Amino acid sequence: MPAKGQIVNFEEPETLEQGQKYYLRNEVKNVGDETGTFRQRYVLRWTGEEYISSPLDILPGESGVFVFIGGFMPGQDAIFDIYLERGPQWVQDDYHQTIIKLGFGQPHVTIEKIDFPESQYPGKSVEVTVTITNTGLTSAYTAMRTLYHWNGQENTTKWIILDPGKTAYMKFTFIMPNQDATITISLLRLHNSEWVTDDSKTITVKLISPPPPPPPPSKWTIPLILCIVGIAIAVIAAPLFKGR
After folding, report:
1. Domain 109-207: which CATH class?
2. pLDDT tens digit string along 221-241?
3. How does pLDDT run across 17-33, given as a tens digit for each residue?
C-alpha cells in the first residue's frame, strides 16, 4: 500500500478568552508501506483565511508532529477545518475539525500535590509526581519548570493543554546527589504570548548516608581462624584417642 496519512492524538483547547493566542498540535501517522510527504491545511471559518504548514516526510509506520501557531481568539467560537494532504499531488488523506468555545475569564493552574520520597541514597534514582489542576475559567497552555538547587540546572517540559476543572499528572526523575536535594517546581502558563508563573513549590529530599564499609581483615585474622579450627579438631578427636 502506498503512503497514507492519518491524524492521531489531536491536542486542542476546549475554551479560550477573547484575545488569547491559540495553538494546535497533533501527530500524523503514516499507515502506508512507503515514505510519504505530508502537509496540513488550516481553514479558519470565521475569516475564511487559509494556512498551509511546511511539508513533513514520514517513514512507514512512523509519526510526525504538526504545530499550528495561529492568531488570537476571536469574539466568537473559533472553528477550524484541518485537512491532511499527501504529496506530490496533495490529495486529501484525512480531516479534523476543531471548535474552540469562546470563554470568559483567565485560567489558573495550581499544584495540588507533590509525591516524592522523604530520603534517598546518593546515586539512586528519585521519581517525583506533581498533580496539577486548572482552577480557572478557560483552558491553559501550561508547562512545568524544575530548578535543581545543588547545580543550578533548569529543565522545562513541553506545554500541555489543561481545560478548566481538569487535573493532570506530571512526572520527572533525577539522580540523588551527595547532599540534600532541594528542587523548586514552577507551573508556567502562556498568557498574551508570554510565560507567567501560576504556582511554585519547593521540596527537599534528604540524603541517606551509606553505611561505612567493613574494615579490611587484619594480619592476625587468618592465623586466628586456623588456630580456632585446630582447637575444634583436637576437641573432636580426643575421645577417639581415649578409646584406644
Report:
1. mainly beta
2. 555 555 554 554 544 555 555
3. 999 999 999 999 999 99
| Secondary structure in 3-state letters for the chain | CCCCEEEEEEECCCEEECCCEEEEEEEEEECCCCCEEEEEEEEECCCCCEEECCCEEECCCCEEEEEEEEEECCCCCEEEEEEEEECCCCEEEEEEEEEEEEECCCCCEEEEEEECCCEECCCCEEEEEEEEEECCCCCEEEEEEEEECCCCEEEECCCEEECCCCEEEEEEEEECCCCCEEEEEEEEEEECCEEEEEEEEEEEEEECCCCCCCCCCCCCHHHHHHHHHHHHHHHHHHHHHHCC
Domain range 5-103, CATH architecture? Sandwich (2.60)
pLDDT of residue 27: 97
Q: What confidence tens digit (pLDDT) does each residue in 125-173 have?
A: 999 999 999 999 999 999 999 999 999 999 999 999 999 999 999 999 9
Contact 8, 26 (CB under 8 A): yes
Q: Would you give the distance in Å from CA 177 to the centre of its chain?
A: 21
Looking at residue 29, what is its pLDDT? 98
Count the neighbouring beta carbons within 10 Å of the beta carbon of residue 164.
19
> Domain-by-domain residue ranges, the chain?
5-103, 109-207
Q: Nine-digit cell at 122?
A: 546518593
